[in-house]
Amino acid sequence: MERNEAKKIIANYELNQMSDNDKIDILERNYWFFDSKEDIIEAIADESYPKISNHLIDLISVTSKPVLNEESESLILDFIKDGFYFVSNSYLEFKLIEINQNFTDKVIGEVEKAGLCPCCEYYSIGYGEDGFYDICPVCFWENGGNGPNHMTLEEAKLNFGKFGAINKNSLDFVDVEGRKKYAKE
Length: 185
Ligand SMILES: [Zn+2]
What we know:
With about 180 residues, the chain is mostly helical. Helices cover about 45% and strands about 5% of the residues.
């Protein structure tokens, strides 16, 4: 099975498991224009959201009332699928088996080129300049040096070894499946 197809199946499955409140929460957090038609049009016009495909922009622009419907749910699907950027094919297989125990196919296709997190050393952030100031989902290190992290890389690495995040407070924000998802150096 092709990687993109696998992502689509898993995202659809996860969408179906979500409550309406969870869905609205994702929309409100990630698409600020969600509750206002004017804001939607503005966001499209100033290209604030380049990640939104033209297809979705078309859908949004014809939605009379931005509520939970097929169109807005496709935004959530996009959001979930974006979460599988950089994850290994074996992780996608693991998720497909969770959904269907009889799944025996292999997931194929090239993993998006990721950058190496300097703290946990997983390939979990954007590559090169794309990864500047990315926050690592595995350890919560912000890829911008000591400043934004309020600690040195050495301290962060030590804490990651001890707690599984750059500090105890960040444990709530790391992805619980992060270590399974990404390739390690
Ligand atoms: Zn990391």
